[in-house]
Amino acid sequence: MFNKNIKLVIAALIIAYAVYQFIEGNIGNGIFLILLASIFVFLYFRNEFILLAFLRMRKQDMEGTEKWLKRIKNPESALTQKQQGYYNYLYGIIYSQKNLTQAEKYFRKALKLGLNMDYDVAMAKLSLAGIAMQKRRKREATKLLQEAKKLDKNNMLTDQIKMMQQQMKKI
């Protein structure tokens, strides 16, 4: 909704007004304003449109996910680097059902920009391994599978990794 820098300016102005409220003796107003400013600081690190796109993704609504992602105009300037990574990660998931070449491009860009969670990195590498396997690049797929296996610390992707390794044996 707002540019990332505008969010910080709004938070700073609200905090300044909260300090004024504290000085005037209106402690309740000051506390409320500090909480309000914390929302803007939170939205600086977590873009609201990406959060809404993840909610749509959880419901398996790819059209809704893409609709929320398209609302982000000029992601290079509007998002932080990690947010750009998740922006590309979500587009990679969307395009993995439509166009594998586009999906591969988005997943690689997401990995280059960085993702916060090891699970997300593992999922992106697993998806890239699947794309490489479909394009008959067995060596690259094996390498990506091993990297995904190392990153999957909670064993949430072990079934998918085993299934993909069995499919690779058939190639």
In short:
This protein has 171 residues and is mostly helical. It has helices at 4-24, 27-45, 48-58, 62-70, 75-78, 81-95, 100-113, 118-134, 138-151, 158-170.
What does this structure look like?
This protein folds into two domains: 1-45, no CATH class; 47-170, Serine Threonine Protein Phosphatase 5, Tetratricopeptide repeat (Alpha Horseshoe). Helix content is 80%, strand content 0%. It has helices spanning 4-24, 27-45, 48-58, 62-70, 75-78, 81-95, 100-113, 118-134, 138-151, 158-170. The longest helix has 21 residues, at 4-24. The radius of gyration is 21 Å and the shape is elongated.
Estimated radius of gyration = 21 Å
Shape: elongated
Strand percentage lies at under 5%
- At the first level of CATH, the class of the largest domain is Mainly Alpha
Structural class, from secondary structure content?
mainly alpha
Helical stretch tally: 10
Distance between the termini: 48 Å
Biggest sheet statistics: none
Question: Any idea how many domains?
Answer: 2
- Fraction of residues in helices? over 70%
- Name the CATH homologous superfamily of the largest domain: Tetratricopeptide repeat domain
Q: List the helices and strands in order.
A: HHHHHHHHHH
Which stretches are poorly predicted, pLDDT < 50 over at least 5 residues?
A: none
Q: Please tally the β strands and state the result.
A: 0
What's the CATH architecture name of the largest domain?
A: Alpha Horseshoe
CATH topology of the largest domain: Serine Threonine Protein Phosphatase 5, Tetratricopeptide repeat
- On the 0-100 scale, what is the average pLDDT? 86
Oligomer status: single chain
